[in-house]
From TrEMBL:
Organism per entry: Micromonospora pallida
SUPFAM superfamilies the record matches: MetI-like (SSF161098)
TM stretches of this protein: 7-29, 74-97, 109-128, 140-162, 183-205, 241-262
Pfam families noted in UniProt: BPD_transp_1
Protein name as catalogued: Carbohydrate ABC transporter membrane protein 2, CUT1 family
Length: 276
Protein backbone atom coordinates (compact mmCIF):
# COMPACT_ATOMS: atom_id res chain seq x y z
CA UNK A 1 0.00 0.00 0.00
CA UNK A 2 2.82 2.41 0.90
CA UNK A 3 4.70 1.63 -2.31
CA UNK A 4 1.56 2.14 -4.38
CA UNK A 5 0.90 5.48 -2.72
CA UNK A 6 4.48 6.63 -3.33
CA UNK A 7 4.26 5.64 -6.99
CA UNK A 8 0.93 7.44 -7.35
CA UNK A 9 2.37 10.61 -5.78
CA UNK A 10 5.47 10.40 -7.97
CA UNK A 11 3.32 10.02 -11.10
CA UNK A 12 1.19 13.00 -10.03
CA UNK A 13 4.20 15.25 -9.45
CA UNK A 14 5.77 14.10 -12.70
CA UNK A 15 2.62 15.00 -14.63
CA UNK A 16 2.46 18.39 -12.89
CA UNK A 17 6.13 19.04 -13.65
CA UNK A 18 5.62 18.21 -17.33
CA UNK A 19 2.57 20.45 -17.46
CA UNK A 20 4.47 23.30 -15.82
CA UNK A 21 7.37 22.82 -18.25
CA UNK A 22 5.07 22.95 -21.27
CA UNK A 23 3.37 26.06 -19.89
CA UNK A 24 6.59 27.90 -19.04
CA UNK A 25 8.58 26.86 -22.11
CA UNK A 26 7.33 29.66 -24.41
CA UNK A 27 8.12 32.30 -21.76
CA UNK A 28 11.57 30.87 -21.08
CA UNK A 29 12.29 30.75 -24.81
CA UNK A 30 11.15 34.35 -25.14
CA UNK A 31 13.46 35.50 -22.35
CA UNK A 32 16.36 33.49 -23.76
CA UNK A 33 15.88 34.94 -27.22
CA UNK A 34 15.59 38.48 -25.88
CA UNK A 35 19.14 38.42 -24.48
CA UNK A 36 20.68 37.33 -27.78
CA UNK A 37 22.08 39.50 -30.52
CA UNK A 38 20.59 39.18 -34.03
CA UNK A 39 23.82 37.49 -35.13
CA UNK A 40 23.59 34.88 -32.34
CA UNK A 41 19.93 34.22 -33.16
CA UNK A 42 20.74 33.73 -36.86
CA UNK A 43 23.80 31.50 -36.34
CA UNK A 44 22.76 29.41 -33.32
CA UNK A 45 19.94 27.05 -32.58
CA UNK A 46 16.85 28.74 -31.04
CA UNK A 47 17.36 26.57 -27.95
CA UNK A 48 21.05 27.45 -27.58
CA UNK A 49 22.03 29.41 -24.47
CA UNK A 50 23.28 32.91 -25.43
CA UNK A 51 27.02 33.28 -24.97
CA UNK A 52 27.46 35.95 -23.85
CA UNK A 53 23.98 37.35 -23.05
CA UNK A 54 23.33 40.96 -23.96
CA UNK A 55 20.97 43.68 -22.76
CA UNK A 56 21.17 45.61 -26.02
CA UNK A 57 17.57 44.82 -26.97
CA UNK A 58 16.17 46.04 -23.65
CA UNK A 59 18.28 49.19 -23.83
CA UNK A 60 16.88 49.88 -27.29
CA UNK A 61 13.31 49.50 -25.98
CA UNK A 62 13.87 51.69 -22.91
CA UNK A 63 16.13 54.53 -24.06
CA UNK A 64 16.59 53.84 -27.76
CA UNK A 65 14.90 55.16 -30.85
CA UNK A 66 12.09 52.57 -30.66
CA UNK A 67 11.31 53.06 -26.97
CA UNK A 68 8.22 51.43 -25.47
CA UNK A 69 8.10 53.77 -22.49
CA UNK A 70 5.32 56.08 -23.85
CA UNK A 71 3.03 53.14 -24.80
CA UNK A 72 3.74 51.60 -21.39
CA UNK A 73 2.68 54.81 -19.63
CA UNK A 74 -0.50 55.02 -21.71
CA UNK A 75 -1.30 51.36 -20.99
CA UNK A 76 -0.82 51.83 -17.24
CA UNK A 77 -3.12 54.87 -17.27
CA UNK A 78 -5.78 53.01 -19.26
CA UNK A 79 -5.65 49.99 -16.96
CA UNK A 80 -5.84 52.10 -13.77
CA UNK A 81 -8.87 54.08 -14.98
CA UNK A 82 -10.69 50.99 -16.29
CA UNK A 83 -10.01 48.96 -13.14
CA UNK A 84 -11.24 51.74 -10.84
CA UNK A 85 -14.34 52.29 -12.94
CA UNK A 86 -15.16 48.62 -13.38
CA UNK A 87 -14.66 47.66 -9.74
CA UNK A 88 -16.70 50.60 -8.47
CA UNK A 89 -19.61 50.13 -10.87
CA UNK A 90 -19.55 46.34 -10.63
CA UNK A 91 -19.61 46.36 -6.83
CA UNK A 92 -22.57 48.77 -6.72
CA UNK A 93 -24.49 46.88 -9.41
CA UNK A 94 -23.77 43.48 -7.87
CA UNK A 95 -24.93 44.67 -4.44
CA UNK A 96 -28.14 46.00 -5.97
CA UNK A 97 -28.84 42.71 -7.74
CA UNK A 98 -27.94 40.66 -4.66
CA UNK A 99 -29.50 42.62 -1.78
CA UNK A 100 -31.98 45.21 -3.05
CA UNK A 101 -35.53 44.27 -3.94
CA UNK A 102 -37.19 46.06 -6.85
CA UNK A 103 -39.60 45.03 -9.62
CA UNK A 104 -37.97 43.14 -12.44
CA UNK A 105 -34.64 42.71 -10.66
CA UNK A 106 -33.99 39.16 -11.79
CA UNK A 107 -35.23 39.82 -15.33
CA UNK A 108 -32.92 42.81 -15.71
CA UNK A 109 -30.00 40.83 -14.33
CA UNK A 110 -30.42 37.85 -16.64
CA UNK A 111 -31.00 40.05 -19.68
CA UNK A 112 -27.82 41.96 -18.85
CA UNK A 113 -25.95 38.71 -18.24
CA UNK A 114 -27.07 37.37 -21.62
CA UNK A 115 -24.85 39.98 -23.28
CA UNK A 116 -21.94 37.70 -22.41
CA UNK A 117 -23.02 35.55 -25.36
CA UNK A 118 -22.64 38.46 -27.81
CA UNK A 119 -19.15 38.35 -29.40
CA UNK A 120 -17.05 41.48 -29.13
CA UNK A 121 -16.69 41.83 -32.91
CA UNK A 122 -20.48 42.14 -33.21
CA UNK A 123 -20.41 45.39 -31.23
CA UNK A 124 -17.13 46.70 -32.62
CA UNK A 125 -18.62 48.77 -35.46
CA UNK A 126 -21.48 50.27 -33.36
CA UNK A 127 -19.00 51.25 -30.64
CA UNK A 128 -16.69 52.83 -33.17
CA UNK A 129 -19.60 54.72 -34.78
CA UNK A 130 -20.89 56.04 -31.46
CA UNK A 131 -17.50 57.25 -30.26
CA UNK A 132 -16.74 58.79 -33.63
CA UNK A 133 -20.03 60.69 -33.40
CA UNK A 134 -18.96 61.89 -29.92
CA UNK A 135 -15.60 62.95 -31.41
CA UNK A 136 -13.70 60.60 -29.08
CA UNK A 137 -11.80 58.74 -31.78
CA UNK A 138 -8.04 58.68 -31.21
CA UNK A 139 -8.42 59.93 -27.62
CA UNK A 140 -7.75 58.48 -24.19
CA UNK A 141 -11.45 58.37 -23.27
CA UNK A 142 -12.23 56.68 -26.53
CA UNK A 143 -10.11 53.75 -25.36
CA UNK A 144 -11.51 53.44 -21.83
CA UNK A 145 -15.14 54.58 -22.09
CA UNK A 146 -16.73 51.38 -23.54
CA UNK A 147 -15.43 49.25 -20.65
CA UNK A 148 -15.49 51.80 -17.83
CA UNK A 149 -18.89 51.04 -16.30
CA UNK A 150 -18.54 47.43 -15.27
CA UNK A 151 -18.82 44.13 -17.11
CA UNK A 152 -21.39 41.31 -17.04
CA UNK A 153 -18.79 38.80 -15.87
CA UNK A 154 -17.64 40.97 -12.95
CA UNK A 155 -21.19 41.74 -11.85
CA UNK A 156 -22.20 38.08 -12.03
CA UNK A 157 -19.13 36.98 -10.06
CA UNK A 158 -19.64 39.58 -7.32
CA UNK A 159 -23.40 39.04 -7.13
CA UNK A 160 -23.01 35.34 -6.48
CA UNK A 161 -20.40 36.03 -3.81
CA UNK A 162 -22.51 38.72 -2.13
CA UNK A 163 -25.51 36.39 -1.99
CA UNK A 164 -23.42 33.91 0.00
CA UNK A 165 -22.77 36.42 2.81
CA UNK A 166 -25.17 35.79 5.74
CA UNK A 167 -28.16 38.12 5.85
CA UNK A 168 -27.78 38.40 9.64
CA UNK A 169 -24.69 40.57 9.19
CA UNK A 170 -26.65 43.02 7.04
CA UNK A 171 -29.50 43.02 9.58
CA UNK A 172 -27.03 43.87 12.35
CA UNK A 173 -25.97 46.97 10.43
CA UNK A 174 -29.59 48.00 9.96
CA UNK A 175 -30.27 47.59 13.67
CA UNK A 176 -27.44 50.03 14.34
CA UNK A 177 -29.11 52.56 12.07
CA UNK A 178 -26.90 52.02 9.04
CA UNK A 179 -28.05 51.95 5.46
CA UNK A 180 -26.99 50.07 2.36
CA UNK A 181 -23.81 52.08 1.82
CA UNK A 182 -22.67 51.44 5.37
CA UNK A 183 -23.41 47.73 5.04
CA UNK A 184 -21.50 47.63 1.78
CA UNK A 185 -18.52 49.46 3.21
CA UNK A 186 -18.21 47.80 6.62
CA UNK A 187 -19.54 44.28 5.97
CA UNK A 188 -19.65 43.29 2.30
CA UNK A 189 -16.36 44.74 1.06
CA UNK A 190 -14.14 43.51 3.95
CA UNK A 191 -15.50 39.98 3.51
CA UNK A 192 -15.05 40.17 -0.27
CA UNK A 193 -11.34 40.99 -0.41
CA UNK A 194 -10.31 37.63 -1.97
CA UNK A 195 -12.89 37.81 -4.76
CA UNK A 196 -12.10 41.49 -5.36
CA UNK A 197 -8.41 40.67 -5.64
CA UNK A 198 -9.20 37.93 -8.16
CA UNK A 199 -11.41 40.27 -10.14
CA UNK A 200 -8.67 42.90 -10.02
CA UNK A 201 -6.14 40.51 -11.55
CA UNK A 202 -8.59 39.34 -14.22
CA UNK A 203 -9.49 42.92 -15.18
CA UNK A 204 -5.87 44.06 -15.31
CA UNK A 205 -4.79 41.10 -17.45
CA UNK A 206 -7.76 41.53 -19.80
CA UNK A 207 -7.19 45.20 -20.49
CA UNK A 208 -3.40 45.02 -20.38
CA UNK A 209 -3.56 42.51 -23.23
CA UNK A 210 -6.39 44.28 -25.08
CA UNK A 211 -5.37 44.76 -28.70
CA UNK A 212 -8.29 44.98 -31.12
CA UNK A 213 -10.22 47.91 -29.65
CA UNK A 214 -7.18 50.21 -29.10
CA UNK A 215 -6.04 49.34 -32.62
CA UNK A 216 -9.41 50.34 -34.10
CA UNK A 217 -10.15 53.47 -32.08
CA UNK A 218 -6.66 55.03 -32.26
CA UNK A 219 -4.68 56.05 -35.30
CA UNK A 220 -1.74 58.10 -34.01
CA UNK A 221 1.30 57.09 -31.98
CA UNK A 222 0.28 59.43 -29.16
CA UNK A 223 -2.38 57.05 -27.77
CA UNK A 224 -0.74 53.79 -28.85
CA UNK A 225 -0.94 51.16 -26.09
CA UNK A 226 1.66 48.50 -25.40
CA UNK A 227 0.06 45.69 -27.40
CA UNK A 228 -0.38 47.86 -30.49
CA UNK A 229 3.17 49.21 -30.16
CA UNK A 230 4.56 45.68 -29.89
CA UNK A 231 2.60 44.58 -32.96
CA UNK A 232 3.88 47.59 -34.88
CA UNK A 233 7.39 46.76 -33.76
CA UNK A 234 6.97 43.21 -35.02
CA UNK A 235 5.75 44.36 -38.43
CA UNK A 236 8.53 46.95 -38.66
CA UNK A 237 11.32 44.58 -37.59
CA UNK A 238 9.99 41.26 -38.77
CA UNK A 239 13.50 39.82 -39.04
CA UNK A 240 14.78 41.11 -35.70
CA UNK A 241 13.13 38.55 -33.44
CA UNK A 242 15.46 39.31 -30.54
CA UNK A 243 14.03 42.85 -30.29
CA UNK A 244 10.46 41.58 -30.63
CA UNK A 245 11.01 38.95 -27.92
CA UNK A 246 12.46 41.60 -25.62
CA UNK A 247 9.31 43.69 -26.17
CA UNK A 248 7.00 40.78 -25.38
CA UNK A 249 9.03 39.94 -22.27
CA UNK A 250 8.75 43.50 -21.01
CA UNK A 251 5.01 43.46 -21.70
CA UNK A 252 4.53 40.21 -19.77
CA UNK A 253 6.70 41.05 -16.75
CA UNK A 254 4.21 43.39 -14.96
CA UNK A 255 1.49 40.72 -15.17
CA UNK A 256 3.78 38.14 -13.55
CA UNK A 257 4.58 40.57 -10.75
CA UNK A 258 0.87 41.28 -10.26
CA UNK A 259 0.07 37.59 -9.99
CA UNK A 260 2.86 37.00 -7.47
CA UNK A 261 1.53 39.84 -5.32
CA UNK A 262 -2.09 38.64 -5.34
CA UNK A 263 -1.67 34.88 -5.65
CA UNK A 264 -2.60 34.24 -2.01
CA UNK A 265 -5.89 36.13 -2.42
CA UNK A 266 -6.65 34.29 -5.65
CA UNK A 267 -6.14 30.89 -4.03
CA UNK A 268 -8.23 31.98 -1.04
CA UNK A 269 -11.10 33.07 -3.29
CA UNK A 270 -11.04 29.70 -5.08
CA UNK A 271 -11.06 27.91 -1.72
CA UNK A 272 -14.00 29.94 -0.44
CA UNK A 273 -15.94 29.39 -3.67
CA UNK A 274 -15.29 25.65 -3.46
CA UNK A 275 -16.50 25.51 0.15
CA UNK A 276 -19.73 27.25 -0.85
Amino acid sequence: MVTRRVLANAATYLALALGALLTLAPYLLSVQTSVKTPQQFAQQSPLAVPSPPTGQNYAELVIGEHTLVPPLVITVQVVIVVVLGQLTCSVLAAYAFARLRFPGRDVVFWVYLSTLMVPFVATLVPRFTMLSWLELRDTFWGIVLPTLFGSPYAIFLLREFFRGIPEDLIDAVRLDGGGHLRALRHVILPLSRPILATLLVITVVTHWNDFLWPLVITSSERWRVLTVATAALQSQFNGNWTLVMAATTLATLPLLVLFLVFQRHIVKSITITGMK
